[in-house]
Write a structure and sequence with these properties.
Number of strands: 0
Mean pLDDT: 75
Radius of gyration: 29 Å
Keywords: Membrane, Transmembrane, Transmembrane helix
């Protein structure tokens, strides 16, 4: 019978290491697990995406109110066309 590291013969654990593979010294040094770091980054990115989408929705709503809500008469013609262009860009994304 040959010696190997298959399921019947797992490699021996190094001192200070548990079944998950990360060392106890890394955990005691205050460094987070890699999974926790990746999850944290994913949560921050999702939150940022939600905030950006919300701000875009508010900008589109505000520009629609300005264009259709009767404030058009108070806008100079150049600002009216800029606002119309920005609204079309926001609506298409």
């Amino acid at each position: 019978m040959a010696f190997g590291t298959g399921p019947e013969n797992p490699p021996p654990l190094i001192q200070g290491q548990h079944e998950g593979g990360s060392s106890a010294a890394a955990l005691q040094a205050g460094r987070p697990e890699p999974d926790a770091l990746i999850n944290g980054i994913a949560i921050i990115r999702a939150f940022t995406a939600k905030v950006v989408a919300g701000v875009g929705f508010l900008a589109l709503t505000w520009s629609t109110v300005v264009l259709l809500g009767g404030f058009v008469s108070a806008l100079p013609i150049k600002e009216f066309w800029f606002l119309t262009f920005i609204s079309m860009i926001l609506a298409s994304t």
